[in-house]
Amino acid sequence: MISHRDRNAQRISALDERAEALHLKRGMGIADARAMHPSIDVVEADPQADRRLLEGLADWCDRYTPLVAIDGVDGLFLDVTGCTHLFGGERAMLDDILARFFHQGFDVRAGLAATPGAAWAAARFAGDHIVQGGEEEALLSPLPLAALRIEPDIRASLESVGLRTAGAVMAAPRAPLARRFGATLLLRLDQALGRLDEAVSPRLPVAPLSVERHLAEPVMLTDDIERLVSLLATTLKADLERRGEGARRLALLLFRVDGAVSRIAVGTSRPLREPLLIQKLFHERLAALEQDIDAGYGFDLVRLCVLSAAAFDMQQADLTGETDDCDADIALFADRICARLGEGAVLRPVTVESHLPERAVATVPFSEVPERSSPPRKPVRNPPMTIYPPERPIRLFRSPEPIEVPATEMPEGPPMNFRWRRALYRVARAEGPERIAPEWWRGQGGEDAPTRDYFRIEDSDGRRYWLYRQGLYGAAQASPRWFMHGVFA
């Protein structure tokens, strides 16, 4: 038996058939149960472990349909619409599910119907029953009120007025039921009978494209898995070409014989559809996860999914059949490194719309960099005058470093000398200032935040620096401070 704490008392939350044969029931106190049978074994409930187990079973059920939802703490919903013919029909599919669960050591109950409500009732109260379309009312009529998936207080209120079965509720007038017991009762009833649609929300997003292969003999070796990836990618290429797309993120699902599922995902920086390149990415990923993937008794189902796709731009080849695209080689190299070491292994700087230099550039994973799209330029009769942007240092510090400035040529001018990192530098030449106002809309002090005056400084040895003064002399704020922000070549 499994116990849980309820209102400062230990009660039975689950029990097996042997415990039921001893006339023990759910909700009974553990003290009363031990008084009746002192030799019973009681285990404390672990809701988190139960949830992980249920999620693992939901992953395994992906072999039948990608639309799998978790129902409460002990149930699963599988939307198998359009999938049953792949397993020989509804009865063959249901028998296969029950047989596989039995061999894994689970005692499950299943039901199949045209509505989720009827399937739920069939699984929990009819036992391995297939409800044909239009037979939902006949199934529900003799069942208790719990088969309607209503709250316990509503069930108690219905039983107090003599309505103890679902058939009695269906025979009663609807208007008085809605006034006295609320609209939820009729909603659940109409959903079970198919009068109202009830959607099953899958726990994982459904891949737009996927291909799979059932194996007569389970595979265990990494080389065999990579060959299967190549075969599946070849099949997937035709679907991607038909849609004019390339894969940006792919997932490899390995279904183990004993029910465990391994999910391996890779991302690409550019749309991809070539089977050889896809195989190379998964080769790197499998090599990185070789110690973490437990093949057990082998994998009997392998599935390759496209989680996200993008438009595929064709490249013009020369007479030798090759394309002069250096970016593609760099992208493949970065993708393989990321597949082995993680998405954060290769970063790329991107420009950010910000006034402050330290925020004007950010580093993002290589695969997340947006592709540059330059619209065709229209001819201009009188082209505007070219304005060159201000010169920026080759090395920009991550955060400005404070410096000491003893004196200035004028209150708004550059320093004559400064001390940085305990060394004194004498200024030979200076250019500036370049004034940069802070971004007050980011909440850094509002309009009263100090401005920055940047100067390009060259010392007596020819070294060049980029420093700035924060604040103005003679202003109401505190005295200005000087910072070193970067160095030139």
From TrEMBL:
Domain UmuC stretches: 7-123
The name this protein goes by in its record: DNA repair protein
Domain of life: Bacteria
Organism: Mesorhizobium sanjuanii
InterPro entries assigned to the protein according to its UniProt record, in alphabetical order: DNA/RNA_pol_sf, DUF6504, Rev_trsase/Diguanyl_cyclase, SulA_CellDiv_inhibitor, UmuC
Record-stated family: Belongs to the DNA polymerase type-Y family.
Cross-referenced Pfam families: DUF6504, IMS
GO biological process entries: DNA repair
Positions of the DUF6504 domain: 401-486
Keyword line: DNA damage
Lineage: Bacteria, Pseudomonadati, Pseudomonadota, Alphaproteobacteria, Hyphomicrobiales
